[in-house]
Amino acid sequence: MGNYSIKELEKLSGIKAHTIRIWEKRHNIIEPSRTQTNIRYYSDEDLKKILNISILNSNGYRISEIASLSRIALVDKVKKLSEEKSDPGIYIDQLTLSMIDFDEARFEKLISTFILKLGFQRTMLEIVYPFLTKIGVLWLSNNISPIQEHFITNLIRQKIIVAIDGLNANVPESAKRIVFFLPDNEMHEIGLLFFHYLLKEMGYKTFYLGQYVPLIDLVESVRMINPDSMICSVSYSPSAKQLKKYLAGLDEKFPGIDIYITGQPLLKQGIADYEKLHYFKDALHLQEIYSEVPQEV
Predict the structure, then answer these.
(1) Do domains 1-84 and 168-291 have the same CATH topology?
(2) Domain spanning 1-84: which CATH class is it, in words?
(3) Of the candidates 201, 206, 198, which has an alpha carbon nearest to the alpha carbon of residue 225?
(4) pTM here?
C-alpha cells in the first residue's frame, strides 16, 4: 500500500499541494489519514483519485462537477477522455494507474494504442520516458516496490525488444559500429535499449552488450568488435570517488574511441575532465548528436 505525503501527490499529479488542501476542505474529494503527530498521508486509492481528477480538471471539467461524480463515474469519464484525446499527460497518468493496480492487460492495451496513434518512437519519447520519471518519484518515496518496478519495466522492455527485432538487420559492413553497455553495477537497461533502437533505426551497426559489463570484459569485447563509438548509461549512485575511478578507467582503456554517457548528475561534471568522454542529456540529444555523424566509415 502507498503512503504518500501531500508533496508526493503534487509531484505525481501536477496539482499544487495548496490546491489539494482547498479541494479537500471545500469539496471533500479525498480524506487523508493522519499519523500520530497529525501529519497527512495518502493511500494508493487517494493517489488514483487525484490522478483521475487531475486529468479531468486539466481538460476543462470544473472541480465542483468532478466532486459530484462517484468513483466509478470518475474512472469512466477518464477512460472515455483518453480514447478521444491525444494528450500525452492523460496517457502518462493512465499508465501510472495501471501500474499501481498491476493491471497488465490495461497497460498492454494503452501502450499498443499509443504506438498505433503516435508510432513507436514518439510513444517512447513523449509518453514512456515521462512515465518512467514518475516511477522514479514513486521509487524515491518508497511508494513503489521492486516487484512493481520489475513488473512495469519488463513490459516496456519487451516492447522495445520487439521494435528492435522489427528493424532491418541488413546493415552495410561499411556502417559505423556502436557498442552499447551498462557498468558492472548497473541493471536499469530501458534507456540503453531505446538508444540501441534509435541508432539501429538510423542505420548504424549496433552491438548491444547489456547489463553488468565488467571493465575487463568490455575491453575484450571492444577488441573483437572494433567499434567507432560506445554508449553507456548510469542510473545507480556511486560515490564521487568511485565514479571518477570508473570514468578514468574508460578513458584509459579506450583512448581512441568516443564514449557517450548519460545518467545521474555527477556524470556531467566528471566527464568534462576527459577528451573522449561525452555527456548526453537524453534520447533526443543522442539522436541529434548521431544525426550529425556520418553513418558510414
Answers:
(1) no
(2) mainly alpha
(3) 206
(4) 0.75
